[in-house]
UniProtKB/TrEMBL annotation:
GO terms for molecular function: kinase activity. It holds the Pfam family Couple_hipA. InterPro entries: HipA_N1. This is HipA N-terminal domain-containing protein. It comes from the Bacteria.
Length: 110
């Protein structure tokens, strides 16, 4: 299992999780849900207490990934499998993205 904090303009909005079977969940933090001034991170992931589930990386996050030559360069340089979309997201969406969302890896205790 791998997890990442999803930040909206630097504030934690929720947690994205990839499970060992390759499926994903996204869950908003209760504090984010409780503040009516905080927006949904995406039109496709509206604010709700219910956890979102998907067999594949959610399209909103998938669309943040580099494509083509840029993807090849990042994967080769960072030694990431080209089919490891979660690993690619963790690598490329940490600091500077187009839009308000950044993705920070949550280190799992050993």
């Amino acid at each position: 299992m791998r997890q990442a904090k999803i930040l909206f303009k630097g504030e934690e909005a929720g947690i994205l999780t990839q499970y060992d079977d390759g499926s994903f969940t996204y869950r908003y933090h209760d504090q984010w849900l409780g503040d009516s001034g905080k927006p949904a991170i995406s039109l496709t992931l509206p604010k709700t207490e219910q956890e979102y589930r998907s067999e594949h990386l959610f399209p909103f996050f998938f669309n943040m990934l580099p494509e083509g030559t840029n993807k090849q360069v990042v994967c080769r340089h960072m030694k990431i499998d080209q089919d490891d979309y979660f690993g690619l997201l963790l690598t490329t969406a940490r600091y500077d993205t187009i839009g308000a969302i950044t993705v920070k890896k949550i280190e799992q205790p050993i």
